[in-house]
User: Fold this.
Amino acid sequence: MDIDDLSGVHPAWLPPRAFQAIASRRVAVHGTGLLVETVREEVGATVTAGAELVLRLTGEAPSEVGPLGDEGFALYRRDGVTVVLAGAPAGLLHGFFHVVRLGEAAFAGERPVERHVPAMRRRMLDHWDNIDVHPVMGQVERGYSGGSIFWRDGVQRDLARVRAYGRLLAATGINAVTLNNVNVHLAEARLLTDRLGEVAAVAGVLRPYGIRVHLSVSFAAPVTLGGLPTADPLDEGVRGWWARTTARVYEAIPDFGGYVVKADSEGQPGPFGYGRSHADGANALADALAPFGGVVHWRAFVYNHRQDWRDRSTDRARAAYDHFAPLDGTFRDNAILQVKYGPIDFQTREPISPVIAAMPATNVAVELQVTQEYTGQQRHACYLGPMWSEVLRFPLAGRVTVAGLARELVAVSNAGDDRFWTGHPLAQANLYAFGRLAWEPSLDPLSILDEWIDLALGPDADREALHAILDDSWRTYESYTAPLGVGFMVRPGHHYGPDVDGYEYTPWGTYHFADREGVGVDRTRATGTGFTGQYPQPWADVYESLERCPDELLLFFHHAPYDHVLHSGSTVIQHIYDTHFAGAERTVEMRRLWERLAGQVAPDLDARVRERLDEQVRSAAEWRDQINTYFFRKSGVPDAKGRTIY
Ligand code: GCV
Assistant:
């Protein structure tokens, strides 16, 4: 199938069926503007009188509704008429898609006035897409959904698919997309200058959906693109180059969102090369963007990736806080510090990054990973809504949650040119859930899953079976992979499948330190790396204590003996055996449950899910056997239940 032919592409959560409730009713749309036109197009024919659904752009909301801002909307139903009010066009678009989600329920009974305003002002998806096919990372770095929807083999693609993507994203509440990989190679760097037309073309396609385009840029661009001798952020010539270059970007794209920068990280250039701080670096770009209302997302993913595994004093988990916390209050208002939710790297289980609470005078965006780099690469069904919900609700600073501390939510997209968008069709639910949680972090992830099932798979799909497969799939994945929060144990490079010692003697700083007595990283203040001291109370003391530390994070914070008794009552070693047997068994059950969907979903989707679940069953058994065998051989402790360990 050619990517540009949309006929074979799965409609994800916007199938024609989702519009039935609206299509069968008389609709009036009041207002002007590009996004209002999008709503008109979605609705089809509109009426001026006798409408059952009224979508009205108005500066005035009913007095009982608070301010709606640029993107909010109010919804009510009175006297047989459903009304959406918005103060700005984007609000009307979001209100419209809310009615789509509600379906017939939007037209039942009376509805008191509800106010819907996004919790996060920016809800952004980052694409790690390359323009040229990278010899190791391919067209999309950590992409598991085919190729890029933007580029193929160095050339921009037809934008029909991008348009469909924008529509899908708008229907979840996303309002920003970064087009290219944070590892910026020369071809992508040139998007800022002589390839700017490609960016403008995408911006033109996403604009009607209320989505602004951002670019990952190279900190070295003044040298590599501008021919200057330095990229020193305090150099006047460098600042002038960023100012002029940015002005040209805004001439072409007046609503351009801004820059994303990965600096001094995994080989990318940055301010350290010039003896400058990351605030100096971020502020130089922020100053260039400020006259146009743009922002720079500056990533906090800065650590030494050339560590010596013999050196027990260096702790990768500490790095972001050590680099950035002292800089709090020195970043410009339009510089946003983009912090991964955990201190290491998108693992299946990590504690929350302490940086999120350490920078009260800085705008912080929390970064999640929708693409399943470490959570099964879209070959395993792993619904991440519950994980993200846990992250967002975590009370990191007193009673203030991560959602309360973050100004924005960002995630690495899992979409590609695959006919189901996400490789594994069930991984669509992750993309959908990210948008919904970014709009409203308090939503129940299982209700979000319900919404996705309704929209994407329809009323005939066995909802109970789907919930049984997906509700706990993140915890299931956790149970058969790296135990008790220790992380990694994946095959180096591509990160798929088990390899317990794969990273143990590498420079990457991700170790488990298993020996014959125990396993885990001592990050305590008393005897370890002191990482626990980066947390506010009570977490600094909870994590410090072997007794109080939550089971699921035990090995992240402690080197625990195999016979240490967990809160669950099991020992560390028996927990490893039990969870790995149970987790692998659970995938067999997931595979069996899918049989109930036979004939209820499209045959090609059914076939794809079966193929993926078969692989999940195989891979989970491999994880089980490698992890169990490894720890049996290390510890010499047999399984209390006498099951097969090799
Ligand atoms: C884009 C991890 C991934 C890299 C990624 C990096 C990042 O290390 O494995 O592929 O680089 O995170 O977030 O910058």
